[in-house]
Amino acid sequence: MTVSTAQPVVRLRDVHRRYPGRPPVRALDGVSLTVAAGELVAIVGPSGSGKSTLLNILGTLDRADAGEVRIDGQDVGSLSDRQLSALRAHRIGFVFQQFFLSPGVTALDNVADGLLYTGMSPRERRRRAARTLARVGLADRTHHRPNELSGGQRQRVAVARALVGRPSFLLADEPTGALDSASGAAVLKLLHELHDGGTTVIVITHDHGVAAELPRQVHILDGRIESDEYSLERS
Amino acid sequence: MSAPRSRLRPRDTVRVAFSGLRARPLRAVLSALGIAVGIAAMVAVVGISASSREQVHQQLRSLGTNLLTVAPGQSFVGEASLPPESVDMVARLDDVGAVSAVGVVPDTAVYRTDEIDPNQTNAIAVSAARTDLLDTVGATVASGRWLDDALGAFPVVVLGADAADLLGVARTDGDVQVWLGGEWFTVAGVLDPVPLAPELDSSALIGWPVAASLLDFDGSPTTIYQRVDEAAIDDVRALLPSTVDPATPEEVAVSRPSDALAAQAATDETLTTLLLALGGVALLVGGIGVANTMVIAVLERRSEVGLRRALGATRAHIRRQFLGESVLLAALGGVGGAVLGGAATAAFATSRDWPFALPVWVLAGAAGATMVVGALAGAYPAARAARMPPTAALSTV
Ligand SMILES: Nc1ncnc2c1ncn2[C@@H]1O[C@H](COP(=O)(O)OP(=O)(O)O)[C@@H](O)[C@H]1O
Ligand SMILES: [Mg+2]
């Protein structure tokens, strides 16, 4: 076990999330999880195990019913909706399975939109977007629109958009789920490169193959963490 | 560490709102059309009535508003007239410029030929006219010539515009004669319509001397026209009755024809109001169309809302985005409608030879109305978008 002395990026303590119904669904049933800065973590589990619920809570898109959620040391439970929005604007980078790129908008502007809600000037947003696109290997696709890009390239644009604000961590929801295996592998390789560069990445996946490639796997089942394993770093 | 805030620049708010419209241009144009129709109707209604008023004002400016007419009161039974010397009395008043007069020749009618039954009357009055009449009332000759001192002694007639139509006289080359008071009179000219003295339009005007010599005219004027110094017009107006008829001044009627013209221009107010109300209804329907479009847009774009919340948008940012989109949509219709209404006004004014007038307040009003309609139409959909939980917004796809 690695023990990080730095303040953890994510710290969940005994988090519960129940959806009302008959009977109510215990989507998260006492989850405790700590992710240190610089980690590359897979949260893996079968469908219905609570991964999306956990993603929403990690991303501050949803609130826990009970337990403590700290992002960058801040107690999320005590923050207002506006403060949570600010946290997402500055500290969290989302990558979605369906990319969610704006159609008809160039890769550059899609990436620049990652800074839209920081109040930065359009010039600066674009400048940083161009740099980040280069970082994900798409310097030559700056002015392409999503429909002119392959699925893998689209997901890399989405990763660049998540990355452009220099967030504390990247939250990727099934980032390879909509991709063929080659494109998926390229996206995973990119995440590894970002990890090597010091970026904290949390990948949510149902795919054990994807999880196995990452240095840490948190297995979730029926809203509980079943195991938390570290594998040997890839060479 | 002081927490950085989530912030969307005002210009980015507009840009984001605009991008929503640009994504579906046809839908935007169609739903803006309703607003455009309403605004176009309102702008055109106001523009056309303003152009018509401007036309009257221009006419008044060129005709002058300083003409007064004096006539014997209507209380008499039969033909009333003023004393023959009254024209000179008026001319002697201070602040009075040009003076002229006509005198209706009693019991005298004019016909196209001598074969028409004299019991069959028409609306044409036969009047003796002073030769300075045209200049005083601002009348112009449409064809032929006006009476002068030489012609005035002969059986020669100049017809008002309506009188010429009624008699069917089109030629003024001296070959056409009309049967007037039992004599043949040669038609020397036809006048244009006279806005400040419309009674002349249905008159047959003959010389003062020939009226006396051939038709037993006693030389009593029935209407005196005078131009008066604008500044002294009220004073002169008060003085005129006792000047022209010292015996019974209370029976003298003094009027200012330009007032009647100006009043006429104001009478279409009720119609304008009605048409404006119709335009308002069209605007309301257009607003409902915009609201409908926005409700659909919000439903369709749940995942976009979710993405924006994930990128750090606050509820207020989302609300402003959709509110802005709605206002822009309405503004699109407003601008289109203003252009359309302006074009309709210009076309209508041109077809009538009117000046083009479109008051600025109409455009400002149209802009204001559009903003209000857009904001009202967008308020509910925007609030709905802002209230959507980010998770629900993202999980629908
Ligand atoms: N909005 C919701 N309302 C009710 N039940 C829900 C809702 N979202 C998820 N669930 C339930 O919670 C459990 C966990 O769901 P989820 O977090 O989506 O799992 P996963 O992403 O691993 O498939 C499932 O049983 C699911 O049916
Ligand atoms: Mg899921």
UniProtKB/TrEMBL annotation, chain A:
InterPro entries: AAA+_ATPase (IPR003593), ABC_transporter-like_ATP-bd (IPR003439), ABC_transporter-like_CS (IPR017871), ABC_transpr_LolD-like (IPR015854), MacB-like_ATP-bd (IPR017911), P-loop_NTPase (IPR027417). This is ABC transporter ATP-binding protein. It comes from the Bacteria. The keyword Transport applies. GO terms for cellular component: membrane protein complex; plasma membrane. Pfam families: ABC_tran (PF00005). Keywords: ATP-binding, Nucleotide-binding, Transport. GO terms for molecular function: ATP binding; ATP hydrolysis activity; transmembrane transporter activity. Residues 10-234 form the ABC transporter domain. The keyword Cell cycle does not apply.
UniProtKB/TrEMBL annotation, chain B:
The chain crosses the membrane at residues 28-50, 274-299, 327-350, 356-380. GO terms for cellular component: plasma membrane. Residues 29-238 form the MacB-like periplasmic core domain. It is found in: Cell membrane. The keyword Acetylation does not apply. Pfam families: FtsX (PF02687), MacB_PCD (PF12704). This is ABC transporter permease. The lineage of its organism: Bacteria, Bacillati, Actinomycetota, Actinomycetes, Jiangellales.
